[in-house]
Amino acid sequence: MEDFDPAIAMAVALAVEEETDVPKRKRAKWSKKWFLQRSTFGHTKLLRELSHNEPNDLKNFLRMDAESYNELLQMVEPLIEKQTTNMRQPISPTERLSITLRYLATGNTFEDLKFVSAIAPQTIGKIVIETCEAIISCLHEYIKMPQSEGEWLKVSEGFCKSWNFPHALGAVDGKHVAIKKPPGSGSYFFNYKKFFSIVLMAVVDANYEFIVADVGVNGRVSDGGVLSHTDFGRMMDNQELAIPPPEKLCDDDVMPMPYVFVGDEAFSLTENFMKPYPGRGAEEDDIYNEKCIFNYRLSRARMVVENVFGILASRFGVFQRQMLLSPEKAQTVTLACCYLHNFLRRKSKRYIMQGTVDWEDENGTVHGGSWRDSQIESHGLQATQRRNASDKAKDIRDMFRRYFCTKGSVPWQRQSHHFV
What we know:
Elements: H1 6-21, H2 38-41, H3 44-53, H4 55-62, H5 66-80, H6 93-106, H7 110-117, H8 121-138, H9 149-163, E1 168-178, E2 197-204, E3 210-218, H10 231-237, E4 260-262, E5 273-274, H11 286-315, H12 327-347, E6 359-360, E7 366-367, H13 391-404
Parallel strand pairs: 1-4, 4-5
Antiparallel strand pairs: 1-2, 2-3, 6-7
Helix pairs in contact: 3-4, 5-6, 5-8, 6-7, 6-8, 7-8, 8-12, 11-13
């Protein structure tokens, strides 16, 4: 047997002691304990209580009544339902849809919404985007651009009947949607109002419904050029929209008039796009007064898209603050809100009630809709450098002006018009 060496024995003992003294790393939690008690701390019990006893509070929570919610849930459930595993119970379709709607209604951060839902914020972020994609997929028929001359004529009939503007095919406008600055993007999304954004470009019919919703153009693009960066704008420039051919406004007219879209000063005047006359003149001048009448009549028709943007922002609080999302995810959220707007417009009589939108009294005075009371920043497009219009486009606007001042006049148009 070899001799025992006390020095070696001491060294080994010290090494073992040092190894024992190293603190063990705590195992990472798979999930917080209270997240695992979602049935106790989540919002589903609250929703059941509101549904049974406080329907108005339920509508405020979800921005829709129970009937509309249940119909929407039935539509999206197959797309958002997850399988049960041995590890855990999945988050139910009801929880997924309701927390998504709550996010759209408030714009609160996912970190804040975890206290309402007992769901981890990272999971909420995934749920919101997946559910918004499901909403867009299930409601795809609710925003549909007319594909034929006959379908465009139906839109035109609505503007003529509701807003006394014949041959109008839609009211066009854009809205900047605030987002956080994407990493490494520089000033690519930085707009004239000094914040980062993507643009929602919309065409709206006379019934306050989207017929085109194009989202994603970066905020840096000049507002006058946004339209040409959308599929709709390119189709209009290339004459691919199946717009009906020109027709006479009245049987005894000499010249047929084209069908047109209407917008504000941010857009270009073309043969199929009417905008207001610019500038001011002497108020006693007849031509100036006629131009004012044309601008008023155009404003009545164009006002529907301004009201739609106002309703969208007042109903969906996610538009009242910066979206802390990538441009692609913000695009998905914005489109989902547009589809929900049309869905609720058709399904719920209380979505747009009397007084919600701008209205005129018997004297032609315009009263602001209730959505204006919230004083939400519109973030609309800005009139930029004036672009030269063709002589033919100017002639068409002049012909509309003369029509509105003669055969197409309305009794109240020569009175003073303002918001009160």
